[in-house]
Write a structure and sequence with these properties.
heterodimer; A: mainly beta; six-stranded mixed sheet; five-stranded antiparallel sheet; B: mainly beta; seven-stranded mixed sheet; 0% helix
């Protein structure tokens, strides 16, 4: 099946710093989503981005489908950005099944 | 926020007992999913449903069964719980365009501990 790899696995930042999270996938995809799991365990949808670039406030994401990767940018990080970030994909011909990466833990210190 | 609730939110049970988790949605979405989350594995799909009485297996379906008798409810049953089923269980929904293009939205999760 498709492999989804996220990097780096862990990241510690000071408040105000910028960061880039990367998601590599091993096959063509129809769907790619980024999620933030907050410290209370809630999964929050950040982006639905099978291709192209989107921005939402301090966050933006870019997916280059032909090269099989996606990037999540966090600018001017805040302590509330702490948590685990997941990338998840649906393969072409893979029905509606989301396959998740193992996640990246972000800690933003004040 | 998508209207998804899960019950119970926390449960402690003993090995060998049956357990049923419920997912309820108010969005009238066609697709519903059950995932489990374990350290080092991200989320993995257990079963999903693409309509009333229509279900299919996911990546880690052994030891689990599901039922969907109404659009709004999707039940996950552990017939005889084992310690390896200790996990956090998430329900998700999607509109159901049927082309792999749907955005999925997740419920708050149920933390299950099997002693």
């Amino acid at each position: 099946g498709i492999q989804v790899e996220q990097s780096p696995p862990d990241l510690i930042l000071q408040e105000g710093a910028n960061s880039t999270l990367r998601c590599n996938f091993s096959d063509s995809v129809n769907n790619l989503q980024w999620f933030h799991q907050n410290p209370w365990g809630q999964l929050i949808n950040l982006f639905y981005i099978p291709s192209g670039t989107k921005q939402n406030g301090r966050l933006s994401a870019t997916t280059v489908a032909t090269e099989r990767y996606s990037l999540l940018y966090i600018s001017s990080s805040q302590t509330t950005d702490s948590g685990v970030y997941f990338c998840a994909v649906v393969t072409q011909g893979g029905s509606e099944k989301l396959v998740f990466g193992k996640g990246m833990k972000l800690t933003v210190n004040p | 926020d998508a209207g998804i609730t899960q019950s119970p939110r926390h449960k402690v049970t003993e090995t060998g007992t049956p357990v049923t988790l419920r997912c309820h949605q108010t969005e009238n979405h066609r697709y519903m999913y059950w995932y489990r989350q374990d350290p080092g594995h991200g989320l993995r799909l257990i079963h999903y449903s693409y309509g009333v009485k229509d279900t299919d297996k996911g990546e880690v379906s052994d030891g689990y069964s599901v039922s969907r008798s109404k659009t709004e409810d999707f039940l996950l049953t552990l017939e005889s719980a084992t310690s390896s089923q200790t996990s956090v269980y998430f329900c998700a929904i999607s509109e159901g365009l049927g082309t792999g293009l749907d955005e999925q939205f997740f419920g708050p999760g149920t933390r299950l501990t099997v002693l």
